[in-house]
Amino acid sequence: MADNFAISVKGVSKNFQLPHEKVDSLKSVFINPFRYRKGIEVQHALKDISFDVKKGEFLGIVGRNGSGKSTLLKIIAGIYRPSIGSVAINGRLVPFIELGVGFNPDLTGRENVFLNGALMGFSLKEIRGKYSDIVEFAELERFMDQKLKNYSSGMQVRLAFSVATVLAESDILLIDEVLAVGDADFQKKCFEYFKSLKKNNKTVIFVSHDMNAVREYCDRAILINESKIIATGTPGKVSREYDKLFIQESPQQPSDPRKERRGTGEITYTHVDVERREILTDDTNFVLRTKTKVLQDVEDAIFGFSIKNSADVLILGNNTKLEGRKFENLKKGEIIEIDWIIPSILGDGEYFANVAVESSIAVFYDWWGEATKFSVRRNTPMGLAAHPKMGLTIKRGDKS
Amino acid sequence: MEVTKRLKNKYTYSLILLRQLVITEFKLRYKGSALGYVWSLLRPLALFAVLYVVFVQFLKFGADIPFFAVSLLLGIILWSYFVEVTSNGLSSIVGRGDLMRKLAFPRYVIVVAGSFSALINLAINLLVVGFFIVLNGVDLTWNVLWLIPLITQLFILGLSLALLLSALYVKFRDISYIWELVLQAGFYATPIIYPITMVTAASLAAAKLMLLSPVAQIIQDARAAVIAVDTPTVASLWDDPWIRLIPIAIVAILAVVSILYFKKKSPGFAEDI
Question: For chain A: N or C, fewer Cβ within 10 A?
């Protein structure tokens, strides 16, 4: 490996063996040795991944959930071993896969700093040398001799973050996107920290599914999809490829049995779709199209929907009753199409639409969770669930 | 050059971590309990009190043996250490699964740290035994120094089993129940609460076989070294010097097997837990 390389990943593949029935006891091995062998399913988490990272480079690894990017990070960090291939590291590597690993609530803040530091491989001397910096950065001077369990969660995060950032003056940093969660202040601190890393020419591997952050900080990016590298190059180029993934995605028709669907069945949804749902870039409205069929005569019906984000938080919703539209004496065979026109206020991310049709006495004819899925890419600020069009007025000037 | 540097880094990391984990475990051990470290002493002493009353006072075990009470206490303390090391060791890897999945530190450090914590506890307990020994007027000789190699042997035995069991426990959760049974049987199959002379009286062959177990050998040797020179040991019951080496050989073989097995399995712990 040439000296100007920090990390060299060569032909790495990773297979996980997933027993169908987890063999946790000797009994199952003895009683059913054949099924034990048969029951293993091999999951290919990574296939033939190769890339080099130069010293001082800020590399982004992007991919959707389940693409294998976190597995790759764990292999580089040495937590998982590759099934095939090898990873060479040139320098001292500190993984930030999670903050505050090994923090113990029964130890004081001070003791936790030393424990956490030791877990990251820093000696007592190194930690002592930087202890006051850590405490100062975390703004926790008065609390260091209190037990961690008496800290607020915000204080814990601050402590963990400052241990990690102050100590980790190492050559290579692996940063998982989990770092970029938390309240606004904390995110700001994270991003300031990222900027300082970039300024100081650290070698950083940053794993994320947030293209905005990658575009902002990374020199180069790698896109992983379905266990393979499918694009590598400038963040701009990779980001275009990343967007394409959402367009190419085959129309996921509502056949997933895991998604909840229940109801008495007098009226049933036959089609639910979001217009151009692959990728919504529209800044005004989008349309949720629904089609239902009446299978048995009913007296009345209320049609509704709700939209939730990938974190299962309901963002918005509506129904025909709220809108003052009545459906009464529906006859068998009738087909009702309702298009919901929804203002485009959603922030970037992936969303699901739930739809329902119920009677006025709250009997569900059909309740369909996650009936359809869609993505929003409007380049909204990261982490915001909603970003409606807003106006603002500004006044400036002297006191006069 | 590169290789030696990496090797050095690897061991510095292990040492840093080992030290910190032992300190942490020591600090956390009796956190929140009013008596704190006194429990380290009270636990074996309470067990001793019960066994002493039942077996020595009522059942008259070891009436013909000088200083049997102290001998009983020493046996209990060594056995408690063995139990602590192996049963804590067994669950140590699985118990720290959170760390395994997030950091790539050398896995054995966790198990070794547990063994050292138990060793500290043993040292504290031995001080108590020392106090009772002096109180009972036992004549101490330089033979006491034999305790050092004996405890080293016990430490290696306990650590080896802890490594083996902890690695097995990742895959087979039944091990914890099996080991509990083994320890329970082992407590009665080892001359702890009864003097070995009771066994020799019934069957010399059984006593001879019993002493081939490393734990029994260590406990008897320790009693011979500290309390009474005439305590039957593996050396006094077996004439063949090769056979006398069997308990030591068992420990050595176990150590090699355990280290190899742990080494083979440890890279997969993060995935398997």
Answer: C
pLDDT in tens, B35-54: 777 887 888 888 888 888 88
- A55-247 sits in which CATH class? alpha beta
So what's the ipTM on this one?
Answer: 0.81
For residues A290 and A269, the answer to whether their CB atoms sit within 8 Å is yes
Q: If we measure between CA atoms, which residue out of A384, A392, A305, A383 comes closest to residue A342?
A: A305
Q: In the 3-class helix/strand/coil scheme, how is chain B assigned residue by residue? A: CHHHHHHHHHHHHHHHHHHHHHHHHHHHCCCCCCCCCHHHHHHHHHHHHHHHHHHHHHCCCCCCCCCHHHHHHHHHHHHHHHHHHHHHHHHHHHHCHHHHCCCCCCCHHHHHHHHHHHHHHHHHHHHHHHHHHHHCCCCCCHHHHHHHHHHHHHHHHHHHHHHHHHHHHHHCCCHHHHHHHHHHHHHHHCCCCCCHHHHHHHCHHHHHHHCCCHHHHHHHHHHHHHCCCCCCCHHHHCCCHHHHCHHHHHHHHHHHHHHHHHHHHHHHHHHHC
Q: What is the pLDDT of residue A253?
A: 45
Name the band, by pLDDT with cuts 50, 70 and 90, for residue B174.
very high
Closest Cα to residue B273, out of B159, B161, B169, B164?
Answer: B169
What letters, b where the CB count within 10 A reaches 16 and e where it falls short, cover A195-222? eebbeeebbbbbbbbbbbbbbebbebbb
Chain B residue numbers with beta carbons less than 8 Å from the beta carbon of A106 are 28, 31-32
Give chain B positions within 8 Å (CB) of A30: none
Which residue from B minimizes the CA distance to A98? B102
Considering only CB atoms, which residues of chain A are within 8 Å of chain B?
Answer: 16, 23-27, 29, 74, 77-81, 95, 97-98, 101-102, 104, 106-107, 111, 114-115, 118-124
B174 touching chain A per CB within 8 A: yes
**CB contact, 8 Å: B27 with chain A?**
yes
Q: What percent of chain A has pLDDT over 90?
A: 22
Residue type, A40: I
Domain with CATH 3.40.50.300 in chain A: 55-247
Q: So what's the pLDDT on residue A63? A: 85
Q: Which residues on chain A are in Cβ contact (under 8 Å) with B171? A: 23-24
Give me the residue from B20, B27, B267 closest to A118, CB to CB: B20
pLDDT at A256: 47
Q: In which residue ranges of chain A is CATH 2.70.50.60 found?
A: 257-378
Question: pLDDT tens across A361-398, in order?
Answer: 878 889 888 888 888 877 777 667 788 878 889 988 88
| Residue B35 near chain A (CB below 8 Å) | no
Say what the pTM is: 0.72
pLDDT tens digits, one per residue of B207-230: 999 999 999 999 999 999 999 888
CATH topology of domain A257-378: Coagulation Factor XIII; Chain A, domain 1 (2.70.50)
Q: Of the ranges A75-84, B52-61, B154-163, B243-252, which one carries the lowest mean pLDDT score?
A: B52-61
Instruction: Give the tokens for residue A394.
Output: 């500004």
Sheet holding A267-274, edge to edge: A267-274, A285-294, A335-343
Distance of alpha carbon A327 from alpha carbon A320, whole angstroms: 9
| C-alpha count within 13 angstroms, C-beta hemisphere, residue A246 | 23
- Whole-number pLDDT of residue A251: 47
Let me know if A271 is exposed, middle or buried by CB neighbors in 10 A (0-12, 13-18, 19+).
Answer: middle
- Does any CB of chain A come closer than 8 Å to the CB of residue B94? no
